[in-house]
């Protein structure tokens, strides 16, 4: 059977689609958390509580001193460096090399605006946890109505 | 003469049982680096989210076992997840020429570093060449 050229096109398209979605590991982002496709390391997860958003990033072996975290409007940026651990003499032979190292930067959009002045972050056991208090914009503000 | 490798090979399923605890808990195999130095092997494993109290490192019958549990304690409801914290489990078979009794373990920033020294007989000895 001769392969019709249309199938080639579909195959190419399929390949392009695969390339476009490289970096999305689990499910596509939920509405509101639009990854701006800037960086894919570290892996993150986002939880939402009644008063705050919680972002956790997997950063084992990253010296907390090198971590830079910033929030501008709805964009959270996380950068840092994972350095090799070899404190003593240079390794002679590598038998396995599965861990990664180097500088990283990742940016993504939060599902809502947060109070950027009150963002808190803590690092423990190779995990970075960021607490982002929501802006209290959902509580209705009573507006007095003047009568003429 | 037989050239033998002193190595830290990963065990196969046949030699060691997978952790059985009665739960259908998910286990993740953590990424490791293994490098060799003059007097031993250094194994480095990424174990994010595993506190020291939840980590067990043991050697039984020359099988090195790393087992840990990462608690899932992020408040609120999950909105988006790229990872799930699971328990970690990985085993390595240590060569006889390694000294399994002298394994040194250190956990820092979610990274475990194990130093496994070579047995004295396995360390390369410099032989002085006499000039006649």
Can you lay out the helices and strands and say which pair or pack?
The complex is a heterodimer of chains A (148) and B (132).
Chain A: H1 5-20, E1 35-38, E2 44-48, E3 52-58, E4 68-72, E5 75-82, E6 93-97, E7 102-109, E8 120-124, E9 127-133
Antiparallel strand pairs in A: 1-7, 2-3, 3-9, 4-5, 5-7, 8-9
Chain B: E1 8-10, E2 27-28, E3 32-37, E4 40-46, E5 55-60, E6 63-68, E7 77-81, E8 87-94, E9 104-108, E10 111-117
Parallel strand pairs in B: 2-8
Antiparallel strand pairs in B: 1-8, 3-4, 4-10, 5-6, 6-8, 9-10
Mean pLDDT of chain A: 79
What is the ordering of alpha helices and beta strands of chain A? HEEEEEEEEE
C-alpha termini separation of chain A: 86 Å
Task: From the alpha carbons, calculate the radius of gyration of chain B and give it in angstroms.
Answer: 19 Å
Radius of gyration of chain A: 22 Å
**Number of helical segments with 4 or more residues of chain A:** 1
Structural class of chain B: mainly beta
What share of residues of chain A is helical?
Answer: 10-25%
**Principal-axis shape of chain A:** flat
Largest sheet of chain B: 5 strands, mixed
**From the helix content, strand content and strand pairing of chain A, which structural class follows?**
mainly beta
Sheet having the most strands of chain A: 4 strands, antiparallel
Binned strand content of chain A: 35-45%
Backbone shape of chain B: elongated
Give the helices and strands of chain B as they follow along the chain: EEEEEEEEEE
**Unreliably modeled segments of chain A:** 24-32
How many E strands of chain A? Answer: 9
**Number of DSSP helical runs of chain B:** 0
């Amino acid at each position: 059977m001769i392969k019709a050229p249309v199938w080639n096109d579909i195959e190419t398209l399929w390949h392009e689609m695969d390339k476009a979605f490289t970096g999305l590991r689990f499910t596509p982002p939920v509405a509101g958390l639009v990854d701006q496709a800037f960086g894919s390391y570290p892996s993150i997860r986002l939880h939402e509580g009644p008063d705050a958003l919680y972002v956790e990033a997997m950063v084992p072996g990253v010296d907390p001193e090198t971590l830079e975290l910033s929030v501008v409007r709805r964009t959270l940026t996380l950068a840092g460096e994972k350095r090799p651990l070899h404190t003593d003499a240079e390794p002679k032979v590598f038998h396995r090399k599965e861990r990664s190292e180097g500088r990283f930067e990742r940016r993504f959009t939060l599902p809502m605006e947060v109070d950027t002045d009150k963002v808190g972050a803590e690092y423990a056991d190779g995990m970075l946890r960021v607490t982002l208090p929501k802006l209290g914009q959902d509580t209705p503000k009573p507006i007095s109505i003047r009568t003429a | 003469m037989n050239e033998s490798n002193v190595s830290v090979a990963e065990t196969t399923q046949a030699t060691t049982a997978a952790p059985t605890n009665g739960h259908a808990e998910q286990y993740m195999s953590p990424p490791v680096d293994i490098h060799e130095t003059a007097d031993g092997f250094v194994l480095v494993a990424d174990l994010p989210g595993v506190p020291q109290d939840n980590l067990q490192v043991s050697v039984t019958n020359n099988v090195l076992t790393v087992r840990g549990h990462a608690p899932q304690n992020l408040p609120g409801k999950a909105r988006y997840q790229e990872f799930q914290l699971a328990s970690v489990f990985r085993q390595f078979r240590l060569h006889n020429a390694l000294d399994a009794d002298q394994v040194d373990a250190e956990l820092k920033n979610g990274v475990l570093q194990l130093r496994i020294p070579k047995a004295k007989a396995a360390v390369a000895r410099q032989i002085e060449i006499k000039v006649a």
